């Protein structure tokens, strides 16, 4: 079951991750929220992060704690 977050506008988002390769060849894991569950969904917020909501759009984002 993917971690879900319902924002102030009553829209539910699910937390996902994706491993990407940057231009310099370094690999990095990115976290993002989507309205549907996809491959790469996470069951919990990663350690050291917390969920915040943007003021203008209400979109959830991860911030380092």
Molecular structure report:
The protein has one domain. The protein is 0% helix and 48% strand. It has no helices and 5 strands. It has a 3-stranded antiparallel sheet with strand order 1-2-3, with no helix packed on it. The mean pLDDT is 96.
What is the topology?
Blueprint: E1 4-6, E2 12-21, E3 27-34, E4 49-53, E5 60-64
Antiparallel strand pairs: 1-2, 2-3, 4-5
Tell me the domain tally: 1
Distance between the termini: 24 Å
N-to-C series of helices and strands: EEEEE
- Taken from the alpha-carbon principal axes, the silhouette is globular
Portion of residues in helices?
A: under 10%
- The number of helical segments is 0
* Biggest sheet layout: 3 strands, antiparallel
Q: What would you report as the Rg, rounded to the nearest angstrom?
A: 13 Å
Kindly report the spatial arrangement of strands forming the biggest sheet.
1-2-3
Number of strands: 5
Beta-strand share of residues: over 45%
List unreliable stretches of 5+ residues: none
Mean pLDDT: 96
Structural class from helices and strands?
A: mainly beta
């Amino acid at each position: 079951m993917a971690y879900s977050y319902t924002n102030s506008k009553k829209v539910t988002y699910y937390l996902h991750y994706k491993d990407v390769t940057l231009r310099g060849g370094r690999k990095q894991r990115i976290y993002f929220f989507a309205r549907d569950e996809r491959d790469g969904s996470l069951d919990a917020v990663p350690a050291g992060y917390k969920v915040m909501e943007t003021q203008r759009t209400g979109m959830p984002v991860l911030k380092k704690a």
